[in-house]
Amino acid sequence: MKTNRVAAVLIILLAVVLLAFTGCSKEEEAKVEEKAAVESEAADEPFKAAFVYIGIPGDLGWTYEHDRGRLAAVEALGDKIETAFVENVPEGPDATRVIRQLAQQGYKIIFTASFGYMDPTLEVAAEYPDVYFEHCSGYKTADNMANYFGRIYQSRYLSGIVAGAATKTGVIGYVGAFPIPEVVRGINAFTLGVQKTNPDAVVKVVWTNTWYDPVVEREAAVALLDAGADVIAQHQDTTEPQKAAAERDVWSIGYHSDMAKFVGDSVLVSAMWEFSHYYTTRIQAAMDGTWKTQSYWGGLADGDVKLSDFSPLVPAEIKDLVMAEQSKIESGEWDVFNGPVYDQSGAAVIADGAVPSDGDLANMSWFVKGVEGSVNQ
């Protein structure tokens, strides 16, 4: 009788253990199924990429080209991605707020497309280590923050060749945004191109201290035209300087986009950006988990900068010269700032045969001989 009682107790204990085990297994199984469902739902959701713009896509310049790059990424990657942009974001505290809000809204990669967004981007990147950040035209990076730009100075140089051949007064006007290395480097490269076809020409610079202000840009261009310029170039985000030149029946050089499409044949050629490939490949890398921080600076050979088609007003021999110079740059045989290069005082700042480093170019804060204007306002 005692043996039977012990056996019964053991059977009951075994049943309790089995029930407990079965219960745990079902509970664990439910958790696994729930986790799989969440992961499956997340996998089905599009990857979210955001862009922060200094201007509006309708500026027909800088922001227009960035947004063309965004749209190209959408076309290439289809419904696998979802993109958004915030336009007209001032550099400074407002940029920090906007970038942070985008990270909070679940965007997995955020592109900030203006030099003054650099520190705000870095600040927010530290707060969101699982989000990828890409800053255009700066120099700071972090584990989850890259920077990118293009060697637009190469296209600037080529467009300068065209400008130098076109001017009859020997005065070319240049509407500059801010006296920072990016803009200074472009003015210098353009001037070296001008000197290739017209060694005695001068490039007059007027600063606006704006990136996007159509009224101010037009006024600066008019002032340069009044000072004798018969070709207008610019580092601004609208077509207003080109329109002002066209109204005076003189020539201009476009920037950012092919401005002849919006102004006409008086725009002899444009130095252009092409962000399509970069945006597509970097979003894809973030999706794949292969994204790595970098400092990227692509040039003519990479397809990140280019020239537009020439106006029919550009002579064939000048087109041929530009193409020959472009081939030299693309081959790596030569680049725009290979020495000797002289500053405004006539001193050789880059010695004969010397090749400046990217760091030297990125910190350029002096004007070449032939520029009329000052880096120090």
Tags for this model:
377 residues; Rossmann fold; six-stranded parallel sheet; seven-stranded mixed sheet; globular; 12 helices
Assign the CATH topology of the largest domain.
Rossmann fold
What gyration radius follows from the Cα positions, in whole Å?
29 Å
Which bin fits the share of residues in helices?
40-55%
Strand order of the largest sheet: 12-10-9-8-6-7-15
Q: Quaternary arrangement of the chains shown?
A: single chain
Number of beta-strand segments: 15
- So, the CATH homologous superfamily of the largest domain? Response regulator
In total, how many domains does the architecture comprise? 3
**What CATH architecture of the largest domain would you give?**
3-Layer(aba) Sandwich
Structural account:
By secondary structure, this protein is an alpha/beta fold. The chain has 3 domains: 1-43; 44-150 and 276-301, 3-Layer(aba) Sandwich (Rossmann fold), CATH 3.40.50.2300; 152-273 and 303-372, Rossmann fold (3-Layer(aba) Sandwich), CATH 3.40.50. It has helices spanning 2-44, 62-77, 93-104, 118-127, 152-166, 181-197, 214-226, 240-247, 260-263, 276-288, 316-331, 358-362, and strands at residues 47-53, 81-86, 109-113, 132-136, 145-150, 171-176, 202-207, 231-234, 251-256, 267-273, 295-298, 305-307, 341-342, 348-350, 371-372. The strands form 3 sheets. The protein has a 7-stranded mixed sheet, with helices on both faces. Strands 2-1-3-4-5-11 form a 6-stranded parallel sheet, sandwiched between helices. A two-stranded antiparallel sheet has the order 13-14. The longest helix has 43 residues, at 2-44. It is globular and about 85 Å long. Residues 1-19 and 35-41 have low confidence and may be disordered.
